[in-house]
Structures are given as C-alpha cells and as structure tokens.
Target: L-cysteate sulfo-lyase
Amino acid sequence: MHLARFARIRLAHLPTPLEPLPRLSEELGLDLWIKRDDCTGLAGGGNKTRKLEFLLGAAFEEDADTLVTQGAVQSNHVRQTAAAAAAHGLACEIILEERTGSKATDYVGNGNVLLDRLFGATLRTVPGGTDMVAELEKTAAEVRARGGKPYVIPGGGSNPTGALGYVDCAREIVVQADDLDLEVHRIVTATGSAGTHAGLVAGLAVMGADIPVLGIGVRAPKEKQEANVFKLAEETAALLGQTGRVTREQVIADCDYVGEGYGLIDQGVIDALTLAARLDGIVLDPVYSGKAMKGLIALARAGRFKGETVVFLHTGGAQGLFGYQTEIEGAL
Ligand SMILES: *Cc1c(COP(=O)(O)O)cnc(C)c1O
Model:
C-alpha cells in the first residue's frame, strides 16, 4: 500500500484527532473514542474531503474543467464537491434528487443547499426515484457539447478512487491508536454510498490490522448494503495491487436503524443527537452520523460492546442539521 502512487490534491486538515468521549463512555458502559472526520476541513468538513483529494487528483490528470456530481437535496457530498471545485477554479454541475420528498423551506433552501449556492455551483433538481446515473451522463454530455471537459463523480464520491481516502484514514487510525497504546476492538461508522466503509475495510485488510468495522446503514437493507460495500472494497484493494485481500466476512452492516427511510428522522435519531451534544459537546447530523449513533447507542445498551474499546468515526454532516429545523425543533 503506497498511496503516493495515486494523483492527489491536498484538501484536508490531516490527521484528524482521535479523542476519547468520556461522558458518553460512562453513559453507555464502554470505552468510546471518536475519530474526528467532521474536522477534515473543506466547507466545514466531513468524510467527502478525503475522497475528493483523490477524485480531484484524477480529474486534473484528465484535464477536466467541470466537476459533475449528484446527491440528495441536503447532500454533504455535493456541498464539499462544490467547495473543492470553487477552490480549484473548476465549474460544478450538480443534480439534486428530491429523495426524501420534503418541501420544507429549510430543507430545500438552508443547510447544504445554501452552501452549494454560496460556492457558485449550478444546481438542477429532479424528482425522487430518478435514474441518477443517467442524469449524470446527460449533464456530462451537455458540458461536452458546449466544449467543456467534465469529470463525473458518482454519488457520495464512492468509487475505488474515492475510497482511497478511507484507505488512508484506516492507516491514520491504526497509527494513532498505536501511538496511544490503544487496542481498538471495533470501528463503527455510518454506511451509505459505501466508499467510507469499503475504504476502511480495504485499508485494514491490506495492512493486516484485524479491526472489525461495523457499518450502520442509512438507506439500503443489510444484504444489499453488504454486497455494495464488499464489491467496492474488493475493487479498492485491486486498485492498490492487492487483489483478493478482502474477505466477505470482513464486511458487516447493521441496517436496523434506518427508520422510515433515507434522510427521514425519528425520535431515536433526535435522542442520539441530543445525547452526543449534551454529554460530550459533539454535533452529529440527522441523516448519517446521528443514525449511526442511534445504532451504536442501542447496541451498547443491549450489551453488544461490553468491555470493548470502540472508535466511532464521525463522518461530519452538521451543515445538514440546518435543513431539518422543522423536524428537530419540536422534539427538543
Ligand atoms: C456521505 C456521508 C456518509 C456516508 O458515507 P458513504 O461513503 O457514502 O457510505 C456518512 N456521513 C456523512 C455526514 C456523509 O455525508
């Protein structure tokens, strides 16, 4: 594993801290640590920064002048892609899918959407259920037709190139834990478009660090999520020249905490947001890190992590909180 072989544009503030969560640890009865990837920088930070370093590297290798990507209306990936494009003088074409169906004014105009506009991205909105891969191709064709050079980034930045960012994060966690003499029994992360989970699994497998990763699903059912993560982890290992190093058993997702659906919040998520905020001053988001914490809390209370040292990967997303004022304010 030698990541300097890959083109990379530095965007992130690295390494992000690995810190204890003393009050949540006491509340939940485990030794809980947090990997602060909400502090990666780039429009407020989050997990897409690490992926975008390698994706922009690839875009510049292809002499692209326009980034094209897609996401849900309150996509953090879109916000961070728009910021990366602005910072590097690239145009940015965005397709937003009305995946949650929410028409609340804060959902469609505040939070990430406000920031997308601030960064000067061109936004187009399509109904929920639209074929987003086809929309990406359509937009790329339009850019080409006017003489531009598009670089298409899949939703969430989740392809083997983007996942290299989380191969690097796996290395970073192991180095930090070793420096702290901290034996990590498990890493817990939100898992959505799969690049974060897959990059971690591939990175740990290639390093030979046998730390299990538990992905808490935010959208797809378990079988589909695990299949997506495994496929991408295998492809990522192959990109590293390490074909066959990832095994199916290394990919574990728990998708019992999705609730009503992607981007839809429930009392369990609000309880997780308030517990993290009020015990350790941590801001989570309603779509990803808050759902992952909802799962972690439930599993911890059921005794699942007894005696374990667990690292919770904070993947960011706090900017999306401001798209959910309507849902959250009544529940506090
Ligand atoms: C995109 C995102 C995730 C999920 O990461 P994937 O690589 O898409 O699985 C988790 N948390 C936040 C805040 C995100 O924006």
